[in-house]
Amino acid sequence: MSTLQHTSLAEVEQIYTRLQRTFKDGTTRPIAYRRKQLLQLARMFQENAAAIEQAEYTDLGKPKQEVAIAETSGVIESALFAAEHLEEWSRPEKVQVEEWRSSWDTTVYKTPKGVALIISPWNYPFILTFNPLVGAIAAGCPTVLKPSEVVPTCAALIASLVPKYLDSEAYAVVNGAVTETTALLDKPWGHIFFTGGGKIGKIIATKAAQTLTPVTLELGGKSPVVIDEDCDLQLAARRILYGKTQNSGQLCVSPDHVYVPRHLVADFKEAVKVAYSTFFPSETALHPNSHWGNIVNPSHHSRVKGLLDRTLGEILVGGQVDGAKRIAPTVVTGVKPDDSLMEEEIFGPILPILEVENLDETIKLISNGSSPLVIYAFTNNEETKEKLLNRTTSGSLVFNDTTIQLAVHEMPFGGHGESGYGAYYDKNSFDTFTHKRSSINVPAAAEAMFGARYRPYSEEKYALMTQSIHSKIPEE
Ligand code: NAD
Fold first, then answer.
1. Residue 424 DSSP code
2. Within 10 A of 158 (CB to CB), how many other CB atoms are there?
3. Which pLDDT tens digit goes with each residue over 39-86?
4. In terms of CB atoms within 10 Å, which end of the chain has fewer, N or C?
5. Count of CB atoms situated within 10 Å of the CB of 59
6. To test ligand 1's pocket by mutation, which of 200, 223, 424 has the most ligand atoms within 8 angstroms of CB?
7. Are residues 170 and 68 in the same domain?
8. Full strand arrangement of the beta sheet holding 171-173
9. What integer pLDDT is reported at residue 1 of this predicted model?
10. Is the predicted pLDDT of residue 471 greater than 70, yes or no?
């Protein structure tokens, strides 16, 4: 592992001053400037795809396929998409108003919120830093990036690449941990975009409140999977196992646990075994050729292993642990709601299966928690879909697949309740960093309608100005 150079607090000050000056200069406002930076960002990812794969391999042992698909391509595509749609997104909008105000030039301008701060986690260090940045650049916000210190090679690479490709007057990287992030959080920002765990999310929101900085919190949590009577169990098992094995389970939208109706458990277990043996034909997933990544560090490894050691469930497949680096994908059956594996977000390659009587019991168990980032449900039954839609809450609701919502970038992605607030991707990213500034221009001719608002007040003027108080409210 490379040693990561933390940014000095003096440099943090200089960066902040420099970016504030750039924002006030208006440098980042022209569409042509923003477009150029977005194209440069796409170029940065294309020209350094191999270095990015290598850095992720060093820090996480992540297979290059997963880096290329989930991170490099994702950033390139979203930067190019934003460059293409930037002009349309930033266009001022004329607002239709009541006839008597129609000559007032009622316009909403899309203005950048100010200098933005993006704080990202370690599990997908590139896309979770640069996808929000696409929105910030598109909106015209200079931005400080604060990558996670837990993946030092990736964070160091980010710090070396950004100044080579992007305008250093407007975009900068601050590396470090709590001290450096706290120094950043002491300052007011146009917007803070945070991706990480709920515990730190609360710290970020509390600090931001002190400077009245708006915040997006992209958090995690336990995202459940619902198996319904009416579904293809083989397909469900394959798609769940696919989602669970991405980045060795260290994914915010990883299927955390599965609820299976009691009478389907035996068939579902068989389906899981079939999917598992197709994905991992070697004797163990820890075989050197299985393209199986690490748990990020010994402390996370011991946390995940600890959950597994304490479970009262039974291991169906997997269970092997390799030093303090890897844990094989492991499916555990017969897990009860009070099991160790249900205590917290697993964020590792372990998949507990819980037996339930029926959908009502599943919904009750899901609703006992807060709003997960996503609820997955394998069903072809419209009534089940309706029930889940109306009786549960979550950031997203995905039927018949897992993790694929990340690819549907036209839709907003974000949490709800304990899984966070705010959303992004494509235009939603642009909107996140944009202030909708309403503007009107009231012509002198409007004076003809303003008589009643001026002093001296009278009962007649009062009656004229308060018609809504006496108007009839429609019957229900
Ligand atoms: P984390 O909350 O520990 O760290 C995230 C960032 O916060 C890092 O940059 C870190 O340096 C910074 N940080 C840590 N302590 C801080 C403090 N006291 N004050 C200020 N900043 C601090 O998260 P993590 O462990 O890197 O990531 C895992 C979590 O992130 C999981 O819960 C996962 O579900 C969630 N996550 C969510 C999404 C999403 O899109 N919703 C994506 C990825 C990960």
1. B
2. 24
3. 999 999 999 999 999 999 999 999 999 999 999 999 999 999 999 999
4. C
5. 25
6. 200
7. yes
8. 171-173, 143-146, 116-119, 191-195, 215-218, 420-421
9. 47
10. yes
Whether 289 shows a pLDDT value over 90: the answer reads no
What is the domain extent for residue 127?
9-219+424-435
Nearest in space to 144 (alpha carbons), one of 415, 433, 409: 433
**215-226 per-position pLDDT tens digit:** 999 999 999 999
User: 256: burial class by Cβ within 10 Å (0-12, 13-18, 19+)?
Assistant: buried
Q: How far is the CA of 415 from the centre of ligand 1 (A)?
A: 14
Ligand 1 pocket by C-beta < 6 Å: which residues? Answer: 119-123, 128, 146, 148-150, 177-178, 181-182, 195-197, 200, 203, 218-220, 252, 345, 347, 373, 415, 420
Is residue 86 located within the same domain as residue 214? yes
Mean pLDDT across 276-294: 87
Amino acid present at 193: F
CA 195 – ligand 1 centroid, Å: 6
Q: 255 and 185 share a domain?
A: no
* Residue 446 pLDDT greater than 60, yes or no: yes
Q: Are residues 156 and 291 in the same domain?
A: no
Cα–ligand 1 centroid distance for 115 (angstroms): 21
Kindly state whether residue 460 falls inside one of the protein's structural domains: no
pLDDT of residue 376: 98
The mean per-residue pLDDT over the stretch 232-246 comes to: 98
Residue to substitute in 252, 295, 343, 370 for testing ligand 1 pocket (most ligand atoms within 8 angstroms of CB): 252
- pLDDT given at position 142: 99
Residue-wise pLDDT tens digits, 401-415: 999 999 999 999 999
Query: What pLDDT is attached to residue 285?
Result: 85
Distance CA 433, CA 431 (A): 5
Residue at 154 is within a domain: yes
Considering only CA atoms, which residue is closest to atom 8 of ligand 1?
148
Counted domains in the chain: 2
* 23 in any annotated domain: yes
Ligand 1 atom nearest to CA at 177: 11
127 and 22 in a single domain? The answer is yes
- Taking the centre of ligand 1 as the mean of its atom positions, its distance from the CA of residue 86, in whole angstroms, is 29
Distance CA 316, CA 313 (A): 9
- Are 198 and 322 found together in one domain? no
pLDDT digits (tens, 9 = 90+) for 360-415: 999 999 988 789 999 999 999 999 999 999 999 999 999 999 999 999 999 999 99
Residues marked as catalytic: 218, 252
